[in-house]
Amino acid sequence: MLRQLALATLLLTAPVAEADALKNTEIKAVVDDALESFMTPGMAVGIVKDGKVVHLAGYGIKDMNSREAVTPDTLFRIASTTKAFTSAALAILVDEGKITWDDKVIDHLPDFRMMDPWVTREFTIRDLLTHRSGLGAGAGDLMLWPEPSGFSRDEILHNLRHLKPVSSFRSDYAYDNLLYIVAGEIVPAVTGQSWEEFVQTRILNPLQMGCYSGDAPMEALGDVATPHSWLDGKQVTVPRNAITGKATVSAAAGGMVCNVRGMATWMLTQLEGGVSPNGTRIFSEARRDEMWKSETLLGVGSLDRDWNNTHFRTYALAWRKADVLGYEVISHTGTLSGMQAYLSLVPELDLGIILLNNGSHYGARTAVMQAILHGYLGGEKRDWVKTYADWLAAREAAKAQKDERREGSGQMFLSLEVYAGTYKDTWFGKAEVALKGTELRFASEKSAKLTGKLEPYEQNTFIIRWDDKLVGEDASCGLKPIFPARSPA
Length: 489
Hints:
The protein is of the alpha+beta class. It has helices at 2-13, 24-37, 83-95, 105-108, 117-122, 125-128, 153-159, 178-191, 195-204, 251-254, 260-271, 285-291, 302-308, 363-377, 384-400, 416-419, and strands spanning 42-49, 52-60, 76-77, 228-231, 234-237, 257-258, 296-298, 313-315, 320-324, 327-336, 339-346, 351-357, 421-425, 429-436, 439-444, 451-458, 461-466, 475-478.
C-alpha cells in the first residue's frame, strides 16, 4: 500500500511533459503559407527557449523591387512593441529612486492637462501606461499618423486637454498612443536625456541589440525591410513608413527599429528578470514583475475561448496578459501600415517568440504565432493559416451583405462654395477647404498626407475620400461655416 501511495504521489506531482516544438522545416512551411495567403512579402522569426536562441531565420523578401531575402538581421519598424521599452526606461528610473509608478504626472510635467481638472491632478505615471484614461480608443492619433507628423511632442502634450473623454477615469480599457508620448517625456524631465538617447544608451547598447530608438547611422541601414500593403489587387510599397534612419515624433509609442536577432536578446533579458545574456542587469527582477502585473481588465472574445481556451485577458505596463491553453502568456503586437510585429513570452516554459513582417495584413503574424505557440503549449495540431483565412473569409462575407461605402443623401444645407474657407479644431489645428471646380478639397495644415475630396453626405457633413488610399479608411467631416455679420437693414 505504501509503495502504491508513493507511486501515486509521484505521478501526481511529476511535471507534464512539454509538447514537441515545431521543427525548423515545419516553421518554414507555416510561414511560407502565411506569406502567400495574407499577401505579405517577408517575415523574420526568432524563438528563445531555456536561456538560448533556438530559432533565428528570415523568410520571403524584404522589398518587392529588389527581391532581396529577409535575414535575421533585417531591420523592421517594430511599432507598438516599442511600448515595452518605454516602460522599461521608466522602470530603470524607479530602480534608481528617481520616480515611482504612482508619481503624479504634473509633478514632472507641469504643462500636462486632461480635460477634467480632477483627472489631471490624479493622473499617475502608471495611468500613462495602462490605457484607462477615459479617452476613446486611438484618441488624437491624427497628431501622430500618418507620418510625417507636423505636430511636436510639446504640442501633443498641450493638446491633450482638448480631447473629450468617453468614459470615467480608470473605468474602461481604450488603447491610447498619445499617453505613451507623454510617458516618454517623463524621461527627459527627470534625466535631461531625450527618450531616444536614454533608451539607446541604457537599454539597446548594453544589450548589444543592433536596434535604434532614434536616429540610426546610414551604414547601419544596409539590411532594411520595405513596408508593403495590398491595394486594388496588387502589392505596393508604403513610402511614408519606410525606415529612413530618422527619429519620429511617435518614437516612445511605436517608433523603434529592430531585427529579430536583437529582439531575441530582449526576450531573453525579460525572461531572465532584467539580466541580459552577457550578464548585464538592465532593470531589477522586481521591476520586471511590476511591468508584467495586470492593471486593466480586457474582454475575452469567442476566438480566444475557442482557439486558446482563454479565461482572462488584461493589460499590464506595456504588456498584454492572457491564459493560453493553461499557460500565462505575456505578449504585445505592433501595427503600422506596411509593418507588423508580434511578441509572446511564456515564463513557465522559459519561451519567447518574436515575429516581424513587412506587410499590412495581420493574418500572417496571427496564424504563425498560433502555430508556433500551440506547438510548444500542446495545443491542437491544425492548419492555422487555413483556419484563420477561413475565419476572415466568413467575416468578410458577412460584411459584404451590407454596403460598407457610406452613402448619404448628398443634400446639403448650403451651396458648396459657402463651405470653402479655413477651419480650426482645438487639437487637430487648421484645415483648408477649397472649391476646385465643382468639388471641395480638404488639406490639413499639420499633416501633409491628409488631403482629399470632400464628398457631400448630408446636412453639414461630408465624407473625405483620401487622395492616398493607404492613409486609411474614409473619414466623416462636419463643417460649420461662419457667416460674416450683416449690416442692419
